[in-house]
Write a structure and sequence with these properties.
alpha/beta, Aspartate Aminotransferase, domain 2, seven-stranded mixed β-sheet, five-stranded mixed β-sheet, 17 helices
Length: about 475
């Protein structure tokens, strides 16, 4: 028998472990994985009543599945949303939120600083269907106010943005959007629900790539759309049910397992990111560091108001453009080159040639993405190893000789493949005056205590 629900609100760490838990009649401890495409009925009448909605019964995993329902319930509880629907990827979540709400003749306004694929949907796909789109600089409230003086049906924004970590004043933009008749859709993937809850500032819909922090270990793809129950059921659900961007039950189960440690991973990654950002500000090879909780960030005060920590991403500009940036990336030995983010492993990418390569060069320049810009997703490694790896790679970017080192993965593979060697046995020798053990040296003075790099660093003043 299921326990009665607690009579008090549960905290995020508890919701991440127990939210949406639905045990079968086998009373399993872990969530059950319903790896099935369809479901059977007791009778033809039950099948008919299921399709008419007279009875509640699972029909087909494209429409719903118990494992997927558990994930959606957990995410809704964590976000504080009335309802959630999952999708196969984060981009499926974004496109479903937009296409289910907009129609020919509608108008939408978006922040200019968007992920490359989101930018393509707004700039290229939606206009094909007769939907008017307009971009504004997300940090400029005057541009928002001007764009939203006319009627509008939807506003889309990221905060912090990908990859320059630009912030949008959520409360101010939501007020302007609602006055224009628009709903506000916020891509909250960089902040996660642990650091920022857009609905508390007036957002109507929140979208996520569950591939990122939710799974957090580079295993599966997934997405989620959260909002009011009426909008989810009457606007979004007919679109997703009939167009089919369904999440796999296996991926849903894997993401459920990832969520159980989200409250442990994200704070640790944020502490690492803050320490790395502070270190990068001290390097002459770095022209500028972008991290919301650095005092040098132009929207530092807004970040403190909207976010409980600076996040797991750090972006920075390397002096010397693309050539120096590539030297830097190729010299890294611990951090991997990858366009993913929110992983337990630290990952780095060059946006101008990867995630934003199909954004026009003029638009990239307007967004602040230069040929020297790199985006670093901080993981769970020892922060001292990350700092040392970055420092050595920056030396290489500046043209200084770097030590010849194999990539870490190659070192591990070579050591695993090497056959074990047995030491040769030697006959004992009688000690002589020459071979007698030397007296032990006096103990060395204790070394100075190393700084605690996991402590949240105070924002440093930039040195040039």
């Amino acid at each position: 028998m299921a326990k009665p629900a607690p009579d008090r609100p549960l905290r995020p760490a508890t919701l991440l472990v127990r939210g949406g838990l639905m045990r079968s009649n086998q009373d399993e401890t872990s969530e059950a994985l319903y790896l099935t495409s369809g479901f059977v009925y007791d009778s033809a009448l039950q099948a008919e009543q299921t399709f008419t909605g007279a009875v509640q019964h699972y029909q087909y995993s494209r429409f719903g599945n118990p494992t997927i329902a558990a994930l959606e319930a957990r995410l809704a509880a964590l976000e504080g949303a009335e309802a959630c629907r999952s999708t196969a990827t984060g981009m499926a979540a974004v496109s479903a939120a937009l296409l289910s709400h907009l129609k020919t003749g509608d108008r939408m306004v978006a922040s200019r600083a968007l992920f490359g694929s989101c930018h393509w949907i707004v700039s290229t796909l939606l206009p094909r269907y007769g939907i008017q789109t307009e971009f504004v600089d997300g940090a400029d409230l005057d541009q928002w106010a001007t764009a939203l003086k006319r009627p509008c049906q939807l506003v889309l924004l990221e905060t912090p943005s990908n990859p320059m970590l630009e912030l949008v004043d959520l409360r101010a933009v939501c007020d302007l959007a609602h006055a224009a008749g628009a709903i506000v859709v916020v891509d909250n993937v960089f902040a996660t629900p642990l650091l920022q809850k857009p609905m508390q500032f007036g957002a109507d819909v929140v979208v996520y790539s569950a591939t990122k922090h939710f799974d957090g270990q580079g295993r599966v793809l997934g997405g989620a759309v959260l909002g009011a129950k009426k909008w989810i059921e009457e606007v979004l659900q007919p679109f997703t049910r009939n167009t089919g961007p369904a999440l796999s039950p296996f991926n849903a189960w894997t993401i459920l397992k990832g969520l159980e440690t989200l409250h442990l991973r994200v704070p640790a990654m944020c502490r690492n990111a803050a320490a790395v950002a502070q270190m990068l500000e001290e390097r002459a090879e770095v022209e500028r560091v972008y991290y919301p909780y650095l005092a040098s960030h132009p929207q530092f005060d807004l970040a403190k108001q909207q976010m409980s920590a600076g996040g797991t991403l750090v972006s920075f500009d390397i002096a010397g453009g693309k050539e120096a940036a590539f030297r830097f990336l190729d010299a890294l030995r611990v951090i991997d080159i990858s366009n993913n983010l929110g992983d337990s492993r630290s990952l780095i990418t060059h946006p101008a040639t990867t995630t934003h390569m199909r954004v026009a060069a003029e638009e990239r320049a307007r967004l602040g993405i230069s040929d020297g810009t790199v985006r670093l997703s901080i993981g769970l490694e020892d922060v001292a190893d990350l700092v040392e790896d970055l420092a050595a790679a920056l030396d290489a970017a500046a043209g200084q000789p770097a030590p010849r080192r194999k990539p870490l993965a190659r070192i591990v593979a070579d050591e695993a493949a090497a056959p074990a060697r047995k030491p040769r046995a030697r006959a004992p020798k009688a000690p002589s005056a020459e071979t007698a053990p030397a007296p032990r040296p006096a103990p060395a003075e204790p070394a100075a205590e190393e700084p605690d790099l996991f402590q949240q660093p105070a924002p440093a003043r930039r040195r040039r």
